[in-house]
Amino acid sequence: MPAGGPWTPSSIAAAGGSILAEDVSLPVAVLEEPALRHNLEWMRRFTAAYGVQLAPHGKTTMSPALFRMQLDAGAWGITLATAPQAVAAFEHDVRRVLLANQLVGKGNFELIADLQARDTGFWFACVVDSADNVAALGRYFAARGQCIKVLLEIGVEGGRTGVRDDAQAQAVLAEIARWPGAVTLVGVEVYEGVAREEAGVRAVLQRTLAQWRAIRDAGGFAQLPAILSGAGSAWFDVVAEEFAALSGDADAQVVLRPGCYLTHDVGIYRRAAARIHAGNPVARDMGESLRPALRLWACVQSRPEPGKAIVALGKRDAAFDAGFPVPALHYRPDAAAPAEAPAHWQVTAMMDQHAFLDVHAGDDLRVGDLLCFDISHPCLTFDKWRHLLVVDAAHRVVGAVDTCF
Amino acid sequence: MPAGGPWTPSSIAAAGGSILAEDVSLPVAVLEEPALRHNLEWMRRFTAAYGVQLAPHGKTTMSPALFRMQLDAGAWGITLATAPQAVAAFEHDVRRVLLANQLVGKGNFELIADLQARDTGFWFACVVDSADNVAALGRYFAARGQCIKVLLEIGVEGGRTGVRDDAQAQAVLAEIARWPGAVTLVGVEVYEGVAREEAGVRAVLQRTLAQWRAIRDAGGFAQLPAILSGAGSAWFDVVAEEFAALSGDADAQVVLRPGCYLTHDVGIYRRAAARIHAGNPVARDMGESLRPALRLWACVQSRPEPGKAIVALGKRDAAFDAGFPVPALHYRPDAAAPAEAPAHWQVTAMMDQHAFLDVHAGDDLRVGDLLCFDISHPCLTFDKWRHLLVVDAAHRVVGAVDTCF
């Protein structure tokens, strides 16, 4: 541990230290390095098997060090959700960004135009689903003497963004055609995650593929190969399967965008992984699935009633919108090693800085004990932390990563 | 607006700029300065009328610039929830911190001991509700040759932390007595917000008051006056009323800890304010209530269906656990002024970076339009932002504040 205070994740990372030795102020978010490495390799093999590119959604982690790990593991680019996220990635040397959202507002146009002006080698594209938005982009980027690359976004009725039908698509394409040199169509994009059933997911993917083919056949893309992109973190296997229809088509560049595979979880994405491993032959051949890599350590703060513990871990520290954190390990300071937490220890409520843990009256759980929690929904856990510690299998700190939220 | 990019809240604040002129990348969180000033003065008058001290809960904002405004408006100190928060406040010259939580874990003990070592004029106290925790504090601070000030925390059955009965209280007090010079009892504390009905709130406040008197009468406080502290942001009026029983008692120093009064909201705290103004004579005499001061501006990103707009504002940008953001203003770029948003525009769902807004089919709401949202639950909105802009009544940027989450 570093001499003098205050302790910070960065100073701890520099100095080494151990979660179990209480060298670190808790609560803390940790990334388990062996699991990270496993997940990087898993996704590299999966996308290689399908011959598709990977542009992991960086909004999940917003951590430049993790972007770098993903790019070093072969990712084609980084997907992002907002213009300020693109700026943060650019500042950390990411030079290929797919914005899986509409770019709206002059403030955001300017952020992107400034990046394109700073480095003409910066590759950036966003999605469009309305003629109004295309016209606004056209006016702005034409005035700047720049070109903005766009992908037509396909959506589903009752879903989120994206054109619902061919009439909307044609209106967008017609507007793009009015801005030669300022707005360039480079592909078609879909976020299938808003269609919850597999049949609906496959249907929108097939419609997206048909739209891509229709534009290609009409000579509508500014260049070939043209991008066909889909896949959040829950259905990337189905996207790979459906878009495999273009396998070997030299005109097509398929780009998948899952973000949560890097850390996985024990909630929504573990359930998705169970489905993937049951149905996808490539995943099945790889054997082991993704591993949860993002965990939280916290202290028992109070044992006010026999069946209740209050843990110093709150909504400020962990996602709570897709299931509460799940106790995984229990460690009493100075014990030899952590034990598995009993399955009946369950978080039943959270406040800003507290979690309410149900236990049994006779359980040996004391104030000051350490608990390690698994989580559900990495995105809304990452954004609680400016730094996360990287730990080894023995819970020793071997590094730290910053986030840029 | 500043020349060159990237725009940041800080550079915008330095350069001036306007939300309506789209000088700022949206979404953005803004603090409306006239409302902030009003709220500071409101709470100054309220606490002055009761003759009590104010230690606003700083975990709400974690913004040193706002701590400074609160202290300049007469606050006695700043309440905080965690040791790292206390470090952040200390680094920004706050020298009186009440930790309204147990201090647990060696990492956190060390953070606080280091602050006490750096400045012997730093006043810090935390709460205790278990003999185990007192013993751990005693061992650590005795070994450091330091003393830690503590308040006995009173709790309610089925609630959060705090002793449930006299036996627990006596066990804690007995353990404190074993650590003379290392653990010093300076008061009694309660968080009444976990008792949801007014009768329950009054009951636990009365029990807290009785406990304070019993300890005082037994000579149990290390010094007089001794602190009696309560009050989250929902029941501070009832706390002031109940603790007014000690008005004029020179042995007592009553400290209230609301944090959300500074920005207020249109959800949980507007409902609390309605109750307060209906029942509390001091509030009623002051006339106008607290004003919502924290708002969010965002762009309409997509109009994919006649009755639906997708707004570029997500769970990454706003609290969503106590009601979704509420559209307040609608502005079309280049219009003269914003209009009030129709009451039927309602957020029905949020994703990480998107809000789903129900509108009527004929409503004139376009991609690129700006919407200003009120919020519910300031704490979980503040923690989404590293900077917030300070704006005047015309939505011009007049400053910015940082946060230290």
UniProtKB/TrEMBL annotation, chains A, B:
Domain D-serine dehydratase-like residues, every copy: 293-392
UniProtKB keywords: Lyase
SUPFAM superfamilies membership: PLP-binding barrel
SMART domains assigned: D-ser_dehydrat
Pfam families hit by this protein: Ala_racemase_N, D-ser_dehydrat
Organism domain of life: Bacteria
GO MF annotation list: lyase activity
InterPro entries: Ala_racemase_N, D-amino_acid_metab_enzyme, D-ser_dehydrat-like_dom, D-ser_dehydrat-like_sf, PLP-binding_barrel
Span of the signal peptide: none
Protein family according to the UniProt entry: Belongs to the DSD1 family.
Name listed for the protein in its UniProt record: Amino acid deaminase
Organism of this sequence: Stenotrophomonas daejeonensis
